[in-house]
Design brief:
This is Replication protein. InterPro entries: Gamma_PGA_hydro, Gamma_PGA_hydro_sf. Pfam families: Gamma_PGA_hydro. The structure is a single chain. The chain has a single domain, classed as Poly-gamma-glutamate hydrolase, zinc-binding motif (Aminopeptidase), CATH 3.40.630.100. Strand 5, helix 4 and strand 6 form a beta-alpha-beta unit. The longest helix is centred in the last third of the chain and has 15 residues. The chain is an alpha/beta fold. Helices cover 32% and strands 22% of the residues. It is globular, with a radius of gyration of 15 Å. It has a seven-stranded mixed β-sheet with strand order 1-3-2-4-7-5-6, with helices on both faces.
Length: 191
């Protein structure tokens, strides 16, 4: 399904007040966490992003708040241009983005231009008991330099595509969420 809106300007002038919410928690950290399709757009990504952020990492959420048709608020990551989100990305060295993808099985696909960090994160997620790999679909690997995950000062970040099944499991189980978040944080500690 293609996006209804190509730019944030298109979205913001077409959607009613209250259709979306932007949440920014600045911490001045070298790593910024971003969920550009959060809230009701890709369920569970807000909660996962905030869990990984803990008390010390900057995060940004673009959350769908409509009673239906939140998918219309999705702007592809390589075109995501909401000004506060771009500012958060550009203020950090490395950006990690959280996305939802279809699938009832529990898995996460890790992409982005930070190849070494990507490989490390896959290993750490597997060690924590999660199924993790690089996505087979090259369009979902976060390799575009304009992708929001690659807009930090280093020009390379991470994109996590988390299955619906895993997102539901993580938001329902505090221990699983803590294990998942800890695996991500341990990879980020290498920076």
């Amino acid at each position: 399904m293609s996006d209804k809106y190509v730019t944030f300007a298109d979205l913001s002038t077409s959607e009613p007040d209250g259709a979306y919410r932007i949440v920014v928690r600045p911490k001045g950290s070298a790593v910024a966490l971003i969920a550009p399709h959060a809230g009701k757009i890709e369920l569970g990504t807000s909660e996962i992003c905030k869990s990984v952020a803990g008390e010390d990492l900057t995060y940004y959420l673009f959350e769908g708040c409509k009673s239906s048709s939140n998918r219309h608020l999705h702007i592809t990551s390589s075109r995501f241009d909401e000004p506060q989100g771009i500012n958060v990305a550009q203020s950090a060295q490395v950006v990690v983005t959280f996305h939802g993808q279809n699938g009832n099985k529990y898995f996460v696909n890790v992409g982005g231009l930070a190849d070494q960090l990507c490989a490390s994160l896959i290993c750490r997620l597997k060690a924590a008991g999660f199924t993790a790999s690089q996505h087979n679909d090259t369009s979902l690997q976060g390799r575009d330099k304009n992708n929001i995950c690659n807009r930090g000062t280093k020009g390379q970040g991470l994109q996590l595509e988390i299955s619906r099944g895993l997102r539901e499991a993580l938001t329902a189980d505090k221990n699983a969420m803590a294990r998942f978040s800890s695996a991500i944080r341990s990879a980020l500690d290498e920076l």
